[in-house]
Amino acid sequence: ANYLSKFSKAPAICKLVGRKVLDGVGQPTLEVEIYCTVKNYEKRVCSTVMSSHSQIPENALPETTEADEKERNDSVNTAVEWVNESLNTMLRDLEPTEQCKVDKMLGEYFTKKVKEKKETQKQEEEEEAEATLALTSCTPSTTALPGKKKAAKPGKKVAVAEKTIPPAEPVESVLCGSLAIGGTSLAIAKAGATISRIPLYLHIALLKGNQDSPKEITLPLPMVTLLNCEKVSPAKLKLVKEVMLIPPVQLSLKQGIERVLDIQKEMMRLLEPPGKAPTPQLADSKKGRAHNTGKKAPPRALKRISHLGCLITGCDNLEQPLLLMQTACNNIGLELGIDMYLAINCAAHELMDYVKGKYEILTGTFKSPDEMVDMYVELINKFPFIIALIDPLRKEDRQQWNNICCNLGSKCYLIAEEAATYISKLKVDQNINLPTCSGVVLKYINQTKVSDLVELTGLLDGQRHITILGSPDGESSDDSLVDLAVGLGARFIKLGGLSRGERVTKYNRLLAIEEELAKNRTLREAHLEFIAFAEESQPEKQLSDVLPPPKQDSLPLQRSQPALQVRSLPAQPPENSLLT
């Protein structure tokens, strides 16, 4: 039977099913199921659930949030319709292993939909203009002060008042229903891996390597979010959105996660309100729970878990969360900078006051883009265990991005997340349309296709940028993101904290892949390099030339620090030299 089955027809797609489901924060999102004809029988092969990503900042007005929710609902409903009708017909009888062909068809379909949308908008604008013209001809007295101009004036004032900084680039509009493209592409990739009887990460690696099987695979290092700094009163600190832990590379992933959990437990103890820490078993007593003898109730800090799966706390200054992390590590015998490293998500784009032309880093404290660069230089010099800053500036402040890279590129990663433009724009003319930075956080959202990620990570690798696969705000229980990160050779993976099922699922998948690769002896040891952004190429230097001793020349370091290297890269633009 097995012998004869080799001669059977290759499995082909027979049906796509789109369904509206909920993501990890209760928002609607899209599920795509793939059915294939396998040996003349219709069989459900796999499904994928897309993560939803909101562009609305945390401190948005309720009206803005409501409008976003309505738009999201409409988008998901349209995506379900696309999958069940157009895409179902279009992809029928194709083989799920033909990823490039499928993605090309999906791309053409999306382009057609974008064109239709533009034509519809143009038609609506013309009709609106005609209606306005008819109205003004009837009532000439209103021509001086039409309602539209009145509404536009305050917006203009904000733009004019902002003189010293470049204005914010317009947010790229997301086509209603675009989730269908990303969801279908990823579902096809999962189906192709299932049909080929290989893990998804290997299937992705084969796509990136033009079907050349990799001899060894390096796992991405996790950026585990431990603290989410709230930006509402009475907290004063606005600059830090997330404080993340990065385990050193000489630890296995399992050891690194266990170490992060130890730090998290100590952090929860430190955040316990005064007077309640000695008796954690009474923490929930006011809820009327019965006392469990021999069982400890979870600490109160567990009640304040962010949607990112981490602890929420408020801080009054920039150093407070860093000193808190340092205390937590010291209390359990760990040293930051040796046994664990930090990354900070600054989310600077949320802090800009366009009237003043400055960032509000603390309540009532403002800094210009140039002052922000000086502040970060001082911060990294004082806390050298911070090895990554995410979105330290808006993407529009390109000159300051260049300055901060020249100052700090040899000491830590300067990473663009929201500061990176959308994937659709990143591929323009084979150039990475980014501010000067060390790397980019990529998110699998909307119309992103698997082929886009394969092509884009190849471009980033060629331009010596590091790739980080990031988890969106509204994460789903689908763990495909981990396989994507491993298969694409991402340097880091940013999944949020070690709480909430939709996030822990992905850490569990990462641990399972590590175990599988170790068993097959195809797990390659990770190493990290910093990039010195200089005008002229300089010889490579070890991290020990930048940070305190001991000095080690060989790449696989034997001491308890990760293998980190510094290499030089020409700065853009060339007028600015490396500041040492």
Automatic annotation (TrEMBL):
Keywords, in A-Z order: Glycolysis, Lyase
Gene Ontology MF term list: magnesium ion binding; phosphopyruvate hydratase activity
Domain called Enolase N-terminal: residue spans: 13-204
Pathway(s) the chain acts in: Carbohydrate degradation; glycolysis; pyruvate from D-glyceraldehyde 3-phosphate: step 4/5
A Pfam family recorded for this sequence: Enolase_C
GO annotation terms (biological process): glycolytic process
Domain of life: Eukaryota
Gene Ontology terms: cellular component: phosphopyruvate hydratase complex
PANTHER family according to UniProt: ENOLASE (PTHR11902), ENOLASE 4 (PTHR11902:SF30)
Family assignment from sequence similarity: Belongs to the enolase family.
Name of the protein described by the UniProt record: phosphopyruvate hydratase
Protein source organism: Anhinga anhinga (Anhinga)
Underlying gene: Eno4
